[in-house]
Design brief:
- The protein is of the alpha/beta class.
- The protein is 41% helix and 18% strand.
- It has helices at residues 3-11, 13-18, 20-34, 44-49, 51-65, 76-87, 91-109, 116-146, 235-242, 277-289, 311-320, 350-356, 369-381, and strands at 152-162, 167-174, 188-193, 202-207, 217-222, 249-253, 268-273, 296-302, 324-330, 344-345, 362-366, 389-392.
């Protein structure tokens, strides 16, 4: 990319930032008006809440600000590529997105700001990013094709287990009877729901919640209530809780995701809040299954004993696995027994992290966004390097800074 192009893009970051969400909001309006079929791909609930728009704006600005030093983006490109892979995004769709993004920049900023030279620079910048992402995604698609798995594949629900008042595990077997491909502990599945009562197909990502089995996959899903009167309940999670039965079929995409156990000898710290337990549990079960001898610390926070999933399983591992330190934190301890149901009332604080966690460990954490931001700040305050902090944000990716 020419130096002049990079200079123009970087110089326009402040003005794009000032209008970032207006641009991305208008972009999605243009995109869906021209290509309504893409509403089957995007999470329309995140659209309604505005979360997807703000996430896109942040991603665009992050890319533009580092266009002369793409290495600074770290794992951002991999996160985007693995998410696109899970949605079956095609190279042709990048052209559609790029065209509408440039239209949105021009319409919101006006011709005096979004001049021909500015639009040309942003077009070149977008094409560079698209080329990087398409290249990585094509590698992922090639790997899937080598496994004989193209797009979404039919799975049958073989079992359903209620893990708490709000989380249920769903066991999935391929309809064709072939053993499902392996995955790395911490990765997720994309689930596509086609319901005649809905306007659009819905695709969601759910972490695999167990170590790999050649017989079946397991996901564990929290039923999402309506957070406010203006925002409806989670459509897909409630469908999976109220309408799914043993024998039901679901369309499943090959596992993907960039959160997984690293291949090194460092101690492992797994920290979760609420349903963020799912990828952490997959990792823990994999470590136990492989008879890994590293020290493992498991810290889990949940509201109370009614929302506490997998408690008996963790208690058994705590008794049976040498080198495992496992602590559970409840906000509300009513009806619960300390030392049996939970270990401490309150939150996972920096004092607990400092007391329990080896300073040289690899840290993995997942949970509600406010929880993750707190954990991230606490770990950074303890001078833990970013390359040892690994996390998954459920929904559109957002910064923890």
């Amino acid at each position: 990319m020419q130096t002049e192009t990079m200079t123009i893009v970087k110089s326009t970051v402040p003005v794009i930032q000032a209008s970032g969400e207006a641009i991305t909001k208008h972009f999605y309006e243009l995109l869906f008006a021209e290509n309504p079929e893409l509403q089957h791909v995007f999470n329309m609930a995140s659209q309604a809440s505005g979360r997807q728009q703000s996430t896109l704006a942040a991603a665009i600005l992050g890319y533009a600000a580092n266009i002369d030093n793409l290495g600074a983006l770290g794992g951002t490109v991999e996160k985007i590529a693995t998410k696109h892979f899970s949605l079956d995004i095609s190279p042709a769709q990048y052209e559609i997105v790029g065209r509408n993004l440039l239209k949105a920049i021009r319409d919101v900023l006006g011709k005096e700001v979004a001049t021909e030279s500015v639009l040309k620079a942003w077009e070149e910048a977008y094409q560079q990013l698209a080329k990087i992402l398409i290249g990585r995604e094509q590698q992922l698609y090639a790997n899937a094709e080598a496994e004989g798995w193209i797009g979404f594949k039919a799975f049958s629900v073989s079992n359903i287990v209620e893990e708490s008042d709000e989380i249920r595990s769903i066991y999935l077997k391929p309809v064709d009877g072939e053993p499902p491909p392996s995955y790395r502990a911490g990765q997720f599945l994309s689930v596509k729901i086609v319901n005649s009562e809905w306007e659009h197909e819905e695709i969601r990502q759910y972490s695999l919640s167990d170590s790999y089995s050649p017989d079946e996959y397991r996901i564990s899903v929290k039923r999402e209530p309506a957070p406010t009167a203006e925002i409806p309940e989670g459509r897909v999670s409630n469908y999976l809780h109220t309408q799914l039965e043993i024998g039901s079929h679901l369309a499943i995409h090959m596992p993907g995701g960039d959160l997984f156990l690293k291949d090194n000898s460092r101690p492992v710290v797994l920290i979760s809040g609420g349903v963020g337990i799912t990828p952490m549990l997959s990792m823990l079960n994999e470590l136990v299954k492989s008879q890994d001898t590293r020290d493992i610390v498991w810290l889990h926070g949940t509201r109370n004993r009614h929302t506490h999933a997998f408690g008996q399983h963790i208690a058994k591992l705590k008794r049976d696995v040498p080198g495992l330190t496992a602590l559970t934190f409840y906000e509300d301890v009513a009806g619960a027994q300390e030392g049996v149901d939970y270990d401490s009332q309150g939150y996972i604080t920096s004092d607990w992290l400092e007391r329990c966690c080896p300073i040289d460990a690899e840290y993995y954490f997942c949970g509600p966004l406010p929880f993750m931001k707190v954990i991230y700040r606490q770990l950074k305050a303890q001078k833990i390097d970013d390359n040892r902090l690994h996390y998954e944000v459920f929904g559109p990716s957002e910064s923890l800074n």
